């Protein structure tokens, strides 16, 4: 079945898994919300994921394939998708280790170095109108990172938060000032990196094979410091080792640590739109920190 063909009415996750992998299913699926684990007759286990929209499913599938093409970080194999469901390999999880963290740092540097055609470029075959979590995310290509980041990753979410009443107009002015000053705050120009795009700790799986695996990307071309800022935002085991290995493989520009708040504005504003006032206060703190850099 070709990607994008609608699923048959009444199909359960085991039916979708069998159809998109070409294998027989062994046993009943294990269900957890929008996810189902399905065992195949060859011993593998796949995950059938219910998407929020056809665009979200298409973006995730294209993003995983684009990340895999870099032959750097490990991502689950995509077996196929239909209108609202995606079938990928399950990652058997283990415990975080220092060795896995160091390998991850080097692999993440290699992923970023694989590059992208432009800032905001979607993965090949990926939709322009994608998602990050449950929020919309438009992949509009640009050549100048500060201008692109302000126009497509900061201000759209700020405007929506103001419209929703989550951010007050006076507070919005603080973030708008940082957006206007991005050319002076952004640091040295860098080429577009191939980003995972939603690199918080929940999307970093520590595998039973002592490797780090990445899931649920919002992949696009961007600034590599944005992925690293996401790792800082919600914590990551052995983060110091991840960063040290990354720096050994691909040193970051001077002052990168002072720009973490600048790059966190995007995910914090997304969370403000989705989850409310607490994240608005964090976004304001990040903006004030960035503005002092």
Describe this entry's structure for a reader:
The structure is a single chain. This protein is α+β, with helices and mostly antiparallel strands. Helices cover 44% and strands 15% of the residues. The chain contains ten helices and eleven strands. It has helices at 13-21, 54-69, 98-113, 145-163, 169-180, 182-185, 224-233, 239-249, 260-275, 277-291; strands at residues 30-32, 35-39, 45-50, 78-81, 85-89, 129-132, 135-138, 193-195, 204-206, 212-214, 220-222. The strands form four sheets. Strands 1-2-3-5-4 form a five-stranded antiparallel sheet, sandwiched between helices. A hairpin with a 5-residue loop joins strand 2 and strand 3. Helix 3 crosses helix 8 (239-249) and helix 5 packs parallel to helix 10 (277-291). It starts with 12 loop residues before the first helix and ends with a helix. Residues 1-8 have low confidence and may be disordered.
Secondary structure elements and their pairing?
Elements (H helix, E strand, L loop, with lengths): L12 H9 L8 E3 L2 E5 L5 E6 L3 H16 L8 E4 L3 E5 L8 H16 L15 E4 L2 E4 L6 H19 L5 H12 L1 H4 L7 E3 L8 E3 L5 E3 L5 E3 L1 H10 L5 H11 L10 H16 L1 H15 L2
Antiparallel strand pairs: 1-2, 2-3, 3-5, 4-5, 6-7, 8-11, 9-10
Q: Keywords for this structure?
A:
11 strands, 5-stranded antiparallel sheet, disordered N terminus, 293 residues
């Amino acid at each position: 079945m070709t990607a994008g063909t609608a699923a048959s009415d009444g199909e359960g996750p085991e039916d979708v898994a069998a159809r998109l992998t070409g294998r027989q299913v062994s046993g009943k699926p294990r269900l957890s919300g929008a996810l189902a684990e399905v065992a195949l007759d060859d011993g593998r286990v796949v995950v059938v994921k219910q998407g929020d929209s056809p665009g979200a499913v298409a973006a995730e599938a294209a993003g995983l394939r684009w990340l895999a093409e870099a032959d750097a970080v490990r991502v689950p194999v995509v077996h196929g998708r239909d209108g609202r469901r995606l079938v990928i390999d399950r990652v058997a999880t283990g415990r975080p280790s220092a060795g896995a963290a160091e390998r991850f740092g080097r692999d993440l540097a290699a992923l970023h170095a694989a590059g992208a055609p432009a800032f905001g470029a979607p993965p090949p075959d990926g939709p322009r109108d994608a998602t990050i979590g449950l929020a919309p995310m438009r992949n509009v290509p640009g050549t100048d990172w500060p201008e692109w980041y302000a126009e497509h990753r900061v201000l759209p979410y700020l405007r929506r938060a103001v419209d929703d009443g989550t951010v007050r107009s006076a507070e919005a002015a603080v973030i708008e000032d940082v957006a206007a000053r991005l050319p002076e705050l952004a640091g040295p120009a860098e080429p577009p990196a191939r980003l995972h795009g939603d690199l918080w700790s929940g999307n970093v799986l520590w595998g039973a094979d002592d490797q780090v695996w990445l899931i649920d990307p919002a992949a696009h071309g961007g600034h590599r410091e944005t992925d690293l800022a996401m790792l800082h935002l919600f914590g990551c085991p052995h983060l110091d080792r991840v960063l040290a290995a990354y720096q050994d493989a691909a040193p970051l520009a001077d002052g990168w640590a002072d720009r973490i708040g600048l790059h966190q504005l995007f995910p914090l504003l997304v969370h403000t739109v989705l989850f409310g006032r607490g994240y608005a206060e964090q976004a304001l703190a990040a903006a004030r920190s960035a503005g002092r850099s």
